[in-house]
Amino acid sequence: MLSLVILLSVTGVFCTDKDGGKAFRIPLNDGNAIPALGLGTFLGFDENGQKPVTEHEVDYPVTWALEAGYRMIDTAASYHSEDQVGLGVRASSVPRENIFIVTKVPSNEQREVVPSLKRSLERLNMSYVDLYLIHTPVTHKPDSSGFDNIDYLDTWKGMEETKKLGLAKSIGISNFNISQIQRLLKNCETKPTVLQVEVNLNLAQEDLIKYCKSHDIVVMAYTPFGSLFNREADPIATRANDPILVELAKKYKKTVAQISLRYLVQKGVVPIPKSVNKKRVEENIEVFDFELSAEDMETLSKFNKNYRVVLPSFWQDHPYYPFERVDVPAKDLFSG
């Protein structure tokens, strides 16, 4: 695969970038290019709802990541981590122009996309982001008191305006399904460059990835480890102590986490693993010095169970809810 990456970089399928990072860059359909792996900054949930961001919980990992060779940081207004992302960037030795910053318009600010991005830029203390995403097609009222009825086609017009104004170099979407992407492509002036969704060993998303590739849309993977380290997930989900994964890690002299990330990279998917542990942050970028064999890629593909870790079924009554509906929706984690 390493030789293939070199060949593809020459032919323009992949491209290199003199940013000093360890990940190659993948061309986007608007002429920009995205690093093949980045750092996620969403801290998740606990028994009280969304975890609060404590002092240095995000900015330190951002700095560690950049010094370790990452060149992409993913955040969002709803993560409440944009200010710390900005701090972490400024504390690093890497110039801003070499860093690919991703943020997202939240579900309760989609009526005024440009002002929302300007607020994000103030928190980041930056003049632009490299990629701006619609976080979800599900929308809420500005005070988050309930659902709002905003068509994502209207939200997209605001996204296009952010690009025209130079506030975002590229624009894209997150948590959209195929039918929603089809509708967007038929009604947009500027096509999305990226779709960010959950992809991992247990959720292969083969049809969605194939569709996006056919329309020159790069797929980014949040929750790239799936349930590997999640003790509370469904028993059917693969864990990091799975004998096959353990043997593959030994074979390549890598960690199970690195094997799972490399699997996504070789599929052309851009993973954004999150960690606040310095050692793991540094380990997660070390996936560009080996390649999985075709046989091992096939073995890993068999772990797919179409099991989704992130299923916000508490939003399933919204007309633009993008995922499968369930009989008993979960408690709204964002309500605390």
Automatic annotation (TrEMBL):
InterPro entries in the cross-refs = AKR (IPR020471), Aldo/ket_reductase_CS (IPR018170), NAD(P)_OxRdtase_dom_sf (IPR036812), NADP_OxRdtase_dom (IPR023210)
Q: Which residues bind substrate?
A: H135
Keywords attached to this entry: NADP, Oxidoreductase, Signal
Q: Any idea which residues are catalytic in this one?
A: Y79 (proton donor)
Question: What residues correspond to the site Lowers pKa of active site Tyr?
Answer: K104
Tell me which positions the record assigns to the signal sequence: 1-15
| GO MF term set | oxidoreductase activity, acting on the CH-OH group of donors, NAD or NADP as acceptor
Query: PROSITE patterns from the entry?
Result: ALDOKETO_REDUCTASE_2 (PS00062)
Kindly indicate whether the keyword Transmembrane helix belongs to this entry: no
The source's superkingdom equals Eukaryota
Q: Ranges for the NADP-dependent oxidoreductase domain?
A: 37-304
Pfam families given in the database record:
Aldo_ket_red
Family affiliation: Belongs to the aldo/keto reductase family.
User: By its UniProt entry, which PANTHER family does this protein fall under?
Assistant: 2,5-DIKETO-D-GLUCONIC ACID REDUCTASE, NADP-DEPENDENT OXIDOREDUCTASE DOMAIN-CONTAINING PROTEIN
Q: Please report the name of this protein according to its UniProt entry.
A: NADP-dependent oxidoreductase domain-containing protein
